[in-house]
Amino acid sequence: MIRRARPLLGTLVAINAAAHAGAVDSAFDAVARVHRLMNFHSCDSDVARINAAAHRAPVIVDPWTFDVLTQALSLSEHSGGAFDVVVPGSGARHTDIVLQDGCRVLLRRRARVDLGGIAKGFAVDRAIAALQAAGARRGSVNAGGDLRFFGRWPGPVRVRVPGAIGSAVALPPSGHAAYATSAGYFGASLDDPRSGERSTLAWSVTVAAANCVVADALTKVVALCGPLGSLLKPFGATAYAVDAAGRLHAPAA
Amino acid sequence: MARFDPALWIPVAAACVPATVQATQYLTVEQAQRLLFASAERFSPATVRLSPEARARIAAESGVTSRADEQRVWRAMRGDTLIGFFALDEVIGKHELITYAVAMDPDGLIRGVEILDYRESRGGEVRNPRWRAQFIGKRAADTLRLGEDIQNLSGATLSCRHITDGVRRLVVLHRVALKGP
């Protein structure tokens, strides 16, 4: 079993795999590629180029960026706009993003796109795919809140208790291999894209799904709207919440 | 406007894992050196002692204050040729200790960053030098059983912003104290 970790995507990305070292390298390469393409803060990422120019003329992006945007728009539609990669405040919304053939991205009006709420999940999925493509028999990728494994159940997934460093709650087996957690662990807050209102989460919300890109996006939606069946069921996803006292909760309905 | 509504959730029985310390060793110093400089034949210690002036300059240029007046560095050599620098550093937060290594080519360009150790605790012992010392350069075989835990832990890891700051500091340190004439 190889274990490695690197600082990427603004967090610590840890990869465990029963594989040769080259497989782990290719998984980190996939994460680094997502980091490079979708970093909101760098000035030459796809995201930065979209924000600088896509309201004037279509910007051609990497197929991975295009894939993330495609999935993001579908999740925005599915959630009635509760998930939105357009930064609130300017009046622009996800409906102002137009995706065209040839990986072209156009903005109907000036807007700031931030893939921070979904790119990490996508990166975990690509890293898992890279491990599998390189012949790994089992492995896991953990990118600070987004976790996915394959090959063998690694034991119960545990979620940190908000506000209690060092303690965690074990989740019941969900049958899913991908988990994402949103919480105000270290003063983080969540914006409601529909109102622009900012709230701090006293609870943490975890979504288990078939892949991390869906789990990552849905945690934000569930944190804002609650664990609505209409959100979760189409993806076969499951939600959990952990309160500040470390009690685990499941959807009431 | 939707707000987080506790009424939409019901409590379920779950095992609350007793407060544990998350601890993982990824690489020893030797393993990290080999990984970051596969073609190196040897690593010669070249620990840098920083004068107060050098420390001030590094702080001013990187925006990051050095804690110590010493920086652990190795020169990665192939034959008589310097192929790069391997610097070992640590991030000490309130709750976490992260040991990491930065590989730079002779001109100070970053070739890679690897995490060696990750430790976190509820208590204040992270700032205790003796507590920290026990993790440096441990062999993988000695890894605490606790190391298994982090792989299944969802929820944010503590910020890695400090690592980014540390890497920036080391790049400036290279310019100030390592770069040849």
Task: List key phrases describing it.
heterodimer; A: alpha+beta; eight-stranded antiparallel beta sheet; three-stranded antiparallel beta sheet; 6 helices; 15 strands; 29% strand; globular; B: alpha+beta; elongated
Please tell me about this protein's structure.
The complex is a heterodimer of chains A (253) and B (181). With 253 residues, chain A is an alpha+beta fold. Chain A contains six helices and 15 strands. Chain A has helices at 21-38, 46-53, 63-78, 119-133, 212-225, 229-232; strands spanning 2-8, 11-18, 59-60, 97-100, 104-107, 138-143, 146-150, 158-161, 164-170, 178-182, 189-191, 198-200, 204-209, 238-242, 248-251. The mean pLDDT of chain A is 90. With 181 residues, chain B is an alpha+beta fold. In chain B, strand 6 and strand 7 form a beta hairpin. Classes of the chains: A alpha+beta (253), B alpha+beta (181). Chains A and B meet through strand 1, strand 2, strand 7, strand 8 and strand 9 of A and strand 1, strand 2, strand 9, strand 10 and helix 4 of B.
